[in-house]
Amino acid sequence: MDTTKNETAAPADPRRWLALAFIGLAQLMIVLDVTIVNIALPSAQADLDISDGDRQWVITAYTLAFGGLLLLGGRIADYTGRRRAFLTGLVGFAAASAVGGAAPGFGALLGARAAQGAFAALLAPAALSLLTTSFTEQRERARAFGIFGAIAAGGGAIGLVTGGALTEYLDWRWCLYVNVPIAVAAAAGWWVLPADTRQQQRRKIDVPGALLAVTGLVAVVYGCSEAESEGWDSGVVLGLLFLGVALLTGFVLYERNAAEPLLPLRVLRSRARGSAFLSIALATVGMFAMFLFLTYYMQVVMGYSALKTGVAFLPLAAGVLAGAGGLAGRLLPKVPPRALIVPGLLCAAAGTGWLATLDADSSYAAGVLPAELVVGVGMGLVMAPAINYATHGVREEEAGVASATVNTSQQIGGSIGTALLNTVATSATADYLAERVPDAGALEERRAAGGPVPDVVKAGLVEGFASAYLVASVTLLAVAVVVAVLMNTPRPDRAGAAAAAPAAHLG
Fold it and tell me: What is the tens place of the pLDDT at every residue in 215-224?
């Protein structure tokens, strides 16, 4: 059992709250980059002639590179220094964003998005581990992680507003260019970040473990994506999924005996941390489903402009702030984590289930708005305690890899969720149109080319979105049940008292 605690941390740096502002800015850039591209995706799709089947790769290229390389990025941050990794990640992310903004075609855009994900894989764990090691006192930690959790869950909505304004008044390419000034502003805070401490001895990177993890995750997500066109019973799809599971199983087995493991399995053995990772991964499925399909619902079905769509997401951000910064930030030091996470997952499930009832004629006020508020509050309640407990009680030299596991859970959950739910949505739409329109393919081609959207196509799209939302809602309900059973961590004051006993174990 993992009884390691970080109660003997160095005296708190008086500049830690200022450092939180710069760390939060970097995290905001990482999170909003997913959804800021979401809202620009219809314009980019038309400009670069991207098919409906391929459009999700603009999102998945980023999340897959990000999630696949995070464990390696976290270990690099632990070994080379978190502030150094933070600054390197910022510079690389800004450069990749500039290249993506200037991309002349689909391939160049995908390469830039993958490069963004690779540098984000270095930046994100460095940022979270800097936060983890800076705030160790229970109440301060709760406040800091409440703010960070609000950014992690609500930054996507901010990205939609920003993306809407940039797409409306400038061009979709500015949704990538905007990362450059944000990265420069975040890098300006290097002087208040905790100084790096040199390792006592040179550590080797677990290259075999990294290769197994990355290739396994790539195979799983690629298999999910190919299921859209090939079908779930395709030999290619089944082969990719089997290969991915086999490689990830090999990764776990290899890590058990590795001298310098990429991911020490003791980080996962705590029931509190394991439940937190699961909550983050599957809650992200619901959040990504809302962003991707609700963006298309408002722009294509309701006829909103990109800017109006972005503004229409503001209530979601307000709900997240209320859930994470308000309720969770105040209650986190007083109640067990599952007392926040389980109700949060149930709220999110209710909100996505509400979205599944929308039709082509639903109004924003009666349909979209209440669902956004419910999902936002739920996600805020989930993310703040989940991120806190996912990094709680780890050794300082493993803060980077624990932080990387948090982000891996979030990004791989989003990547697989986007691929799966996009497959569900497009398949349901295709089935709906095939039953009602003799030449559904021609209608879809005209819609993709920017022509008027017939009512039957709108109805077909809504049918697909509803199917995806229903799957997301059931997923969130299932994980709520699992977390309620597994996450038996007591409230913080009792946990602290129990930690003094020899048999105590957080989680």
Answer: 887 788 777 7
